[in-house]
Amino acid sequence: MHAVCSVRAVENALGIEIPLNAVIMRNLIEAAQYIQDHPVHFYHLHALDWVDIVSALSADPAATSDLAQSISDWPKSSTDYFAAVQAKVKAFVETGQLGPFANAYWGHPAYKLPPEANLMAVAHYLEALDWQRDIIRIHAVLGSKNPHLQTYLVGGMALAVDPNSPAVLNIERISLLTKLFTKGLEFVKQVYIPDLLAVASFYKEWASLGTGHGNYLAYGDFPLGVGDPTTHPELLYLPRGIILNKDLSTVHPVDQSKIAEYVTHSWYEYAGGDGTSLHPWEGETRPKYTGPQPPYKFLNTGEGDKYSWLKSPRYEDQPMEVGPLARMLVAYASPDAPGHASVKEKVDAVLAHLDVGPEALFSTLGRTAARGIETWVIAEAALEWLDQLTANLKTGDLRVHSGELWDPSKWPAQAQGFGMTEAPRGALGHWVQIEDGHIKHYQCVVPSTWNAGPRDGNGQRGPYEAALIGTPVADPEQPLEILRTVHSFDPCMACAAHIVDAEGQEIVSIKIQ
Amino acid sequence: MAKIAIDPVTRIEGHLRIEAQVDGGQVTDAWSSATMWRGIETILQGRDPRDAWYFTQRI
Amino acid sequence: MPNEAGGLRETLAQRGVSRRDFLKFCSAMTAVLALPPRYMPRVVEALETATRPPLLWLEYQDCAGNTESLLRASKPTVAELILDVLSLDYHETVMAPAGHQAEKSLMDTVEAYKGQYLVVVEGSIPTKDGGIYCTIGGHTALDLVQEIGGNAAAIITVGTCAAYGGIPAAAPNPTDAVGVRDVVKGVPIINLPGCPMNVQNLTAVIVHYLTFGAWPATDQLGRPLFAYGSRIHDDCERRAHFDAGQFVEEWGDEGHRKGWCLYKMGCKGPETFHNCPIVRWNDGTSWPVGAGHGCVGCSEPAFWDTMSPFYRRLPSVPGFGVEATADKVGLGIVAGVAGAFALHGVASAVRAKARPLNKTKVEVEEE
Questions:
Q1: Does the ipTM surpass 0.90?
Q2: What digits encode the pLDDT tens for the residues A391-440?
Q3: Residues of A in contact with C203 (CB under 8 A)
Q4: Sequence spans of domains, chain A
Q5: For residues A420 and A427, is the Cβ–Cβ distance under 8 A?
Q6: To which CATH superfamily is domain A2-253+320-442 assigned?
Q7: Is C365 exposed, middle or buried, given 0-12, 13-18 or 19+ CB atoms closer than 10 A?
Q8: Helices (H), A44-170
Q9: Domain C8-228 has CATH 3.40.50.10350
Q10: A214 to each of A327, A356, A467, A493, C202, how far by Cα in Å?
């Protein structure tokens, strides 16, 4: 997702408009990312906060089969199937080598699912492992490989299209895409969403926990036509906007000039003083580690202390939560957006099923539910975008790249631009300045920095920090409940911890306290 | 009253540390810390803008 | 070790995996390892009787790309790998416990299996300023990799960052990031560079170890010859177009639509040693050059600096389209970067003579 944001930033700087085939291919790649990433988050990164594997060993397979069939028509739901899964888990436990499942929180009082629901979830944990491997082949078809696709280009895509050529994206490959996207939608509708609803119904108290500031920012994404998506938000299927203080009656516009970052509590220093904030164009990065010398037990978290490699991005000085919940809320509250109807239908259906109102969305559970709803929305839309691609090829349009400005000798001596996209984890922006054909300045402000950043210059907590206030902790030695709220954001710290400015930086020597 | 540290926070991508003050069975304050830095934008300086997507993809 | 009684075959049988499927898996592994078919019985026997060796997967300055790659494993699948082949006792991205409980999982294995456990490292290790640019549980990555890696039976580095420093070590290397071989000594280290590594090669290395009790033969850069002994350019499906002088001139042009050679668009295949064209990616679905974008040389040390700008043609040589050209191209780039990169030139020359005799295409199975 950083790749598409980067090419958008450079295309924005140079004024390049990419062909429709490239627009659609990028949308399909991003859609596949959501369709694969969100279920992997739910089953493999988040589920064990709610699902007790050990409890699954005492489930009745017949009752599990009844449960599964009562919530979905997914075919793998017989008594024999769940008995076989249970036998697998039992055999694994009996080896005595519990591997990644050792020393966990099994039996913790915060686990509420009955054994049968636990067994069903464990079965789908394993099924999802195989399913995701197949689904992500969409990225190999359109992007050559996953992870780290390799068909992006400034100006379009490096994947040629021709219905009649054996070596490119042709009808055989489009048929494979159709099969894979269909398989994706089936699993989302028949497994992911029913499991999400089943698990959520046992944890409704989490619909009023983990709220945080209640401010939500979405850049929006999935342009439906040709044009710079960064400067033409009206093209976007999922809309751009801001919701403040949980007020769904007003969606505020996004103005990138109002974004600025603090380093007051981050291990950097600003020339103008650490209490100030700087827009990404003006950003500075001088690392200045002032934390404890390793090995340490605790960070210094006093009032004036720095304690993170993340900066603190703010919009008009307000902390913002980004991610699936922000996107779904903005789309839900934006009646003119192309994706509004689909989002509203599914959000309302989920709320009705759980018998809760829209206020339940502002929570740990709401975050986790929004991720599932979004997957459902995108999995349906992706099949339409695939039809859009086929229809465009039918017109004879085989263009995948705008080559007029490929050669740097045709670029202006100086240019600057920014790109906006929505990664699965939230709003992502890249700002680039180009001089004499080279990068003069580059900065990213990424989703997990918005969410996981430390306090700012005004002492306001970051979204993780704010959301954790009030979280119940039954046993401080086994902080399962804290993990629930942190995981509901789907942290990607690899992404977050690199927010630096490329201009004139000087890596200063670091004094260890 | 206890201050706790969760590090590594697992089942995420990357390195996250959470410190929390726990009083009376609930969190009363929290600190979120990223514990790894690479400096990729620093590395991008002076390079071909057409290569930038390949670098930032590794973020 | 636990699980003395049953090997992989027995465990798989308990999970309902048929003997036929098991043999297919062994056959695929034999092929990936470029072993003659007569070795297949040994692979079968080894996997049938092997216990589950503990494996600790350590992440430092990484993007989790190699972990993502792990999730794409198909021969065996990641579920089989975790449940049946290995005991994945520590992997921050997949493990259930966090914090102190996660550290306990790590240290339990380090203490109980000293000198016996395997370590996989993903990501580079920052050495500047005492290593404070990457800490886990309050310890620096540098201390952790030396203690945990130093007591391992062997270390497998996954991805170019762990192998050679990778992107954090690209100029100006703001954190003095290095690969594992620079900071851990006295332990066998197998390097599986790539951005990310292809998980087919990781599973093959593990199976090789379980089968023969030894690590596969490597080049001077620590890379297994079965996966890195051959140039991309020599195994490339577009090679005939290079030889015929048919090149893509512009993205999306007729040559691009016909699958012609990407050399003029900056492809680094002539100077890159990796088995991408043979095993491909994502269950054989595609690979970069096959899809239409040039190779960027991601399995070569310091490729971020030596192979970029990625769209610049390799140093031009006269006489396109003749068989000898590739070798001249290779010599050209080696000469071009010789100052900073002398070791690589030597290694390239060695590798050119060390191509495997047996290039076996891996069968792609559609479900």
A1: yes
A2: 999 999 999 999 999 999 999 999 999 999 999 999 999 999 999 999 99
A3: none
A4: 2-253+320-442
A5: yes
A6: Cytochrome-c3 Hydrogenase, chain B (1.10.645.10)
A7: exposed
A8: 53-56, 61-71, 79-94, 115-135, 137-143
A9: no
A10: 13, 18, 9, 22, 44
User: Which residues is B36 bridged to in the sheet?
Assistant: C134
pLDDT band at C353 (very low <50, low <70, confident <90, very high): very low
CB-based contact, B6 to chain A, within 8 Å? yes
Q: CB contact, 8 Å: B30 with chain A?
A: yes
- Show residues of chain B in contact with A439, CB under 8 Å: 44-49, 52
Q: Look at residue A495 and tell me whether its pLDDT is greater than 80.
A: no
Chain A closest CA to C38's CA: distance in Å? 31
Fold of C230-327: Cytochrome-c3 Hydrogenase; Chain A, domain 2 (4.10.480)
Chain B hits for C134, CB-CB cut-off 8 Å, are: 15, 35-37
Contacts of C104 in chain A (CB under 8 A): 103
The HSE-up count of residue A219 (CA atoms within 13 Å, CB side) is: 27
- Å between C166 CA and nearest CA of chain B: 10
Integer Cα distance of A510 and A268 in angstroms:
10
Give how far B40 is from chain C: nearest CA, Å. 7
Best probe of the C interface among A150, A266, A285, by most C CBs < 10 A, is A150
Q: What is the mean pLDDT of residues A374-398?
A: 98
Give chain A's mean pLDDT. 95
Task: Pick B48's closest partner by Cβ from A438, A448, A502.
Answer: A438
pLDDT in tens, C235-282: 999 999 999 999 999 999 999 999 999 999 999 999 999 999 999 999
Using the beta-carbon criterion (under 8 Å), do C136 and B8 form an inter-chain contact?
yes
Residue entry with tokens 């309902």: C16
pLDDT on residue C18: 75
Q: For position C25, what pLDDT does the model report? A: 76
Q: What are the residue boundaries of the structural domains of chain C, listed by start?
A: 8-228, 230-327, 329-366
